[in-house]
Design brief:
Blueprint lengths: L2 H18 L4 H9 L3 H9 L6 E6 L2 H17 L4 E6 L2 H7 L7 E4 L5 H11 L1 E7 L5 H9 L4 E6 L13 H7 L4 E4 L2 H7 L8 E3 L4 H10 L6 H7 L4 E7 L1 H13 L4 E6 L4 H10 L4 E2 H5 L11 E3 L6 H4 L5 E4 L12 H4 L5 E3 L7 H9 L2 E3 L3 H13 L1 H16 L4 H11 L5
Parallel strand pairs: 1-2, 1-4, 2-3, 4-5, 5-6, 6-7, 8-9, 8-12, 9-11, 10-11, 12-13, 13-14
Helix pairs in contact: 3-6, 4-5, 4-10, 4-20, 6-7, 12-18
Amino acid sequence: MSLAFYNLFLFLYSAGIRIASLFNPKAKLWVKGRKNSFSHIKSALSGNVSPAIWMHCASLGEFEQGRPVLESLRNAYPSYKIVLTFFSPSGYEIRRNYTGADWIFYLPMDGRRNAARFIDAINPSLVVWVKYEYWYYYLTRLKQKSIPVLLVSGIFRTSQPFFKWYGGIWKKMLLSFHHLFVQTEYSAELLSPLVAEKDITVSGDTRFDRVTDIAENFTPLPQAIIDFCGSHTTVVAGSTWEEDEAEWTHYVKAHPEIRFMIAPHEVDRESIRDVQEEFPGAVLYSDMQQGNWKDNDHTHVLIVDTIGILSRLYHYAHITYVGGGFSDSGIHNVLEAAVYGKPVIFGPEYEKFEEAKGLVACGGAFSIESAVELEKLMVELLSDKERLDTSSKAAKDFVYGNRGATGKILNYIKNNNILQ
């Protein structure tokens, strides 16, 4: 891709999202969040004389991935201010009040002028880029200013433009990084013809550090959740889409003795209404919070119509299901469930996710392609305690056995005197 085509892409993306903002709530937030952004940034940073560390995350998932690094940097270098940016509203709007950063902004749209203005405004001593989302002008401007940029939890595949004949500017973006911390040996092998070996470290995935930290500092959910589960076998289905919920409909109706907690990926009113239609009589978490539920209501399905509790909700399950595996984009975060020692079930689209492949290989997770397969698997797991226990242990052992990426990154920063 030439720079001219990249600039055309930026123009078309900006124009398209502004048109979409007329009818799409997320696009509207994207546009609104960037209105007068430089005035807001200048005002927020006014008077700051402390050095800064900048972390950029595409969205909420990448933030959770980068969070162990961010919080470790804050502890190790308390004199530095933390600037956190998001590209997507689903990250910014949920974490806009996160107390681990000093300033949280939407990342202004890429462009020569925007990149120069933003970088000059925050003047970072170190930049941490989480997993992916590469912006040419930002990265090359940082390179020009000799500001070290680290990629953490990077993952690479042959389908990406870095490895195509038209990937010229993408390769230039790679060379803008001071160091690349990647999840797998395969990623390192792909990069080796393009990036010097000394600039690549196979560190693993920082999400393992994040989910173990959540599990080890677990705070219980409201008593109503505990009461709902009671002594029943409990299934938690998280980050589900319509295709996922369809796989469960028959089994849920056929097993009123099992408690099901379903946390849809989208929690807007229309999406929740659709889930209620799939599971008539289900109680909403928001109603439960208000005391509008009693155990003698005889409902065995809870629909979680809020965000922020899923990573703890899995704690209460005997078996978990993670959505997204029936779409091309693939499954959501399976580690949040596996860390508690819970077998994880998901759809067939998981091959792009190393952690999911690892869990399947060790017996801690199972992929299903239909409702028939799901029901057969549930019968097998719930009728064979030894198999259920073995799978549970395998899931937890896999997660705990892959910790340590954050420590490798912090050691690199310290050993190379990147921050003083």
